[in-house]
Write a structure and sequence with these properties.
The complex is a heterodimer of chains A (287) and B (402).
Chain A (H helix, E strand, L loop, with lengths): L1 H31 L6 H19 L1 H22 L10 H23 L15 E3 L4 E3 H23 L1 H11 L1 H6 L4 H23 L9 H16 L4 H21 L4 H15 L11
Antiparallel strand pairs in A: 1-2
Chain B lengths: L1 H19 L23 E7 L8 H15 L3 E2 L2 E9 L4 H13 L4 E4 L3 H14 L3 E3 L16 E3 L4 H15 L3 E7 L2 H16 L3 E8 L7 H9 L4 E5 L2 H13 L2 H4 L2 E4 L5 H7 L7 E4 L8 H14 L5 H19 L6 H10 L1 E4 L2 E5 L6 E13 L2 E13 L5
Parallel strand pairs in B: 1-3, 1-4, 4-5, 5-6, 7-8, 7-9, 9-10, 10-11
Antiparallel strand pairs in B: 2-3, 11-14, 12-13, 13-14, 14-15
Chain lengths: 287, 402
């Protein structure tokens, strides 16, 4: 029992990091039907920036600066290239484009930060362990769970209660009608893209003290994020939350009890979902 | 569900990309790093097969620069013959490594050296055996290369997985406790290392209470670590490589396990590349290896300093293996008076022995595996920097160890 609770906490903190990345991907896809394959690259960019910025200004500054820098980079890319390829009928071009972008990011980061593995210690305030009743648990991992929960609630509120949220949802529902109401949908899409990237980079900062930072992690994270949004339900922010929790818990419990099959269990789940419920587990109607 | 199908296809592509992540990108550089020779005779051509980039990014350059360092020290010559290196990229693909070895042999090199990956070494083994080219493996540690698949033409200056991890098992049973959890990456080197540790640990009266196999490239070990914490054990033995090792060390330390359950690992898990990344998280980790930067002997002191001066990086066990490989080549050439005819040359290599920075160096004449001392080391902070301090010399170890 004690162990199960501990594994739940581990699974939730892993899920929180995955959620931060996947929800950005889901948001961009939900609004513009635009799948950003460079998303994992922005996670890694966030993690590298976290290491560089916190060496100078500390972890908390990195938590703010890294997403801002990443979003600025994304805004430039969106304006210069991606905007020309908006629209659902250009899906293949978008995929090829962002896939190429993923490689460019990958190589640029290798040039800037080198091939060696990096890591970041948790900030002093969050170092060490705390007794959670059943066992000692890393404080930083609790912080990660809290961050994930706060972001989930905040996103929900923004999407349902604010004007920006209404515009985003309107653009997601029907771009032509939204545009006819005098809303600049291209701008909404661009802003959502940057916001999605900022979330990925934010996930990179939060994840850096838990995971190692190294070339290759960008594609590993991208795959996990893709699995999550497919399992949860494409383009649905709430479904992404459930998907992330499911994937985080599944991989943690599998690695605890059947470690050899930890990855396999994820792909098995993915295959079963695609065969039996291709619209995703947590959405009501087929998309 | 058109998008669903596209996504599924994409996932497949993305997985492929990850699988190919480490695949070769750079074309080999066929140029040889010839230094202006002062020696008069016919040059000795040494074919070198080492990776230039990829997972083993640091290993290839460390080995090559270590070897170059020794050759420079002796003026790039032996027995009045200049030594020329022809370097090829090993890549992460054994078949490519094999092709490049073949190319070097076709170009008429006198001997071949290198191989970071065991798969590449196994692939090259049959070729060099058939073509009768003396070969000195300077890293790949698969046990069988100097056991069942041993060749008259193949020597190894580095280690075997058993040679490094076997001695640690007995030491842990005697010095830490007789109940251990073993965690290892699920691939050949991880399996051999874990098996070797287990064998000597059990011989010394220990019990392995749990054995955990993790897939290569895992992103989160917290599930495994909770399992380790829950097991009734005195020690943990782990074998992981690269970023997996960094993530594991970090999470093990964050879980606060290091204080109650000493972490023992194969030395590679805390070599300089990983140590630098893991930082304080690695503090206190105990490991076994055939070298340590802090080994107290004049050869090592000189080597560590010279390598740092030459490369700007801290010396590593890989640099040492390259350095000693260079020395083996030079000493064998001197002993055979420059004769690279296989018969005389192989005999000369078999006889090579010297005081290496790692201690006494000599080959097992039967297996062609180096016989060397294995050291127990602990990650300590010295003058604000993390390093591996030797805490015990376990003496000379042969392979298979007994």
């Amino acid at each position: 029992m004690r162990l199960i609770l501990l594994q739940m906490l581990n699974g939730l903190s892993y899920a929180a990091v995955l959620y931060l990345v996947a929800v950005g991907l889901s948001l961009t896809y939900g609004v513009g039907r635009f799948l950003n394959l460079a998303h994992g690259g922005f996670y890694l960019l966030g993690a590298y920036l976290a290491i560089t910025v916190s060496a100078r200004f500390g972890f908390w500054a990195a938590l703010v600066l890294a997403p801002v820098i990443a979003a600025a980079v994304a805004a430039v890319i969106e304006r210069a290239v991606l905007r020309k390829y908006a629209g659902e009928h250009r899906a293949i071009e978008q995929l090829l484009l962002t896939f190429g972008l993923a490689f460019i990011l990958h190589d640029l980061m290798r040039i800037i930060w080198g091939g060696q593995i990096r890591s970041l210690a948790p900030p002093p305030l969050l170092a060490g362990t705390v007794d959670v009743g059943v066992a000692a648990f890393p404080v930083y991992r609790l912080f990660v769970v809290a961050v994930g929960a706060v972001v989930a609630v905040a996103l929900h509120l923004i999407l349902t209660r604010t004007r920006a949220g209404v515009m985003i949802r309107a653009a997601a529902a029907d771009q032509d009608i939204t545009a006819s109401l005098g809303i600049d949908t291209a701008r909404v899409l661009g802003a959502t893209y940057s916001a999605g990237v900022a979330l990925a980079a934010f996930g990179g900062v939060v994840g850096a003290p838990v995971l190692a930072t190294a070339a290759g992690l960008d594609f590993r994270i991208l795959i996990l994020a893709l699995i999550i949004i497919v399992i949860g339900g494409l383009g649905n922010v709430r479904a992404t939350l459930y998907g992330a929790v499911l994937v985080g818990l599944l991989e943690t419990f599998a690695s605890g009890y059947v470690p050899r099959f930890a990855f396999f269990s994820l792909y098995l789940l993915l295959a079963v979902v695609l065969i039996t419920r291709p619209q995703g587990l947590f959405v009501r109607q087929p998309a | 569900m058109r998008t669903g199908r596209i996504l599924a296809a994409l996932l497949a592509i993305a997985m492929l990309v990850v699988a190919c992540e480490e695949a070769p990108v750079a074309e080999p550089d066929p140029a040889d790093d010839t230094q202006a020779p002062e020696a008069e005779g016919d040059p000795v051509r040494v074919g070198v097969v080492l990776p230039e980039a990829g997972v083993y990014a640091q290993l290839g350059p460390d080995i090559l620069e270590g070897m170059q360092l020794y050759l420079d020290e002796v003026g790039n010559q032996a027995a009045d013959r200049p030594i020329e290196l022809a370097v090829e990229d090993e890549t992460a693909d054994a078949n490519t490594a094999l092709d490049r070895t073949r190319r070097l042999i076709d170009q008429g090199v006198d001997l071949v050296t290198g191989y970071v990956s065991t798969a590449a070494a196994y692939a090259a083994r049959d070729l060099v055996d058939e073509r009768q080219v003396p070969t000195i493996v300077s890293n790949a540690g698969g046990n069988d290369l100097t056991r069942d698949r041993h060749s008259e033409y193949v020597f190894r200056t580095s280690f075997t997985s058993a040679q490094v991890s076997h001695p640690l098992g007995g030491w842990v049973a005697e010095n830490i406790g007789d109940r251990a959890v073993v965690l290892a990456a699920d691939y050949a080197f991880g399996q051999e290392s874990a098996a070797a540790f287990r064998e000597s640990f059990e011989e010394a009266g220990g019990t392995v209470v749990d054995e955990i196999w993790t897939p290569l490239g895992a992103t989160d070990f917290s599930g495994n670590i909770a399992q380790i914490a829950n097991a009734d054990a005195d020690a943990t033995f782990a074998f992981l490589a690269g970023s997996d090792a960094v993530i594991f060390l970090q999470q093990y330390a964050q879980a606060g396990l290091g204080e109650t359950r000493p972490l023992t690992v194969a030395g590679f898990v805390v070599e300089s590349d990983v140590l630098e990344a893991a930082g304080q998280a690695a503090l206190g980790a105990i490991s076994s290896l055939h070298w340590a930067p802090t080994l107290d002997n004049p050869e090592n002191e000189a080597f560590v300093q010279a390598f740092e001066d030459a490369s700007g990086r801290p010396a590593s066990v890989y640099a040492l293996q390259g350095y000693d490989t260079g020395r083996v080549i030079v000493e064998a050439l001197e002993a055979s008076a420059g004769d690279t005819d296989p018969e005389a040359f192989l005999e000369a290599i078999r006889e090579v022995s010297f005081d290496s920075p790692r201690g006494e160096f000599r080959f097992d004449p039967e297996t062609h595996q180096v016989i060397q001392n294995i050291y127990v080391r602990e990650v300590q902070e010295v003058d604000g920097e993390l390093t591996n301090q030797v805490i015990e010399d376990l003496g000379e170890v042969q392979d298979p160890p007994s």
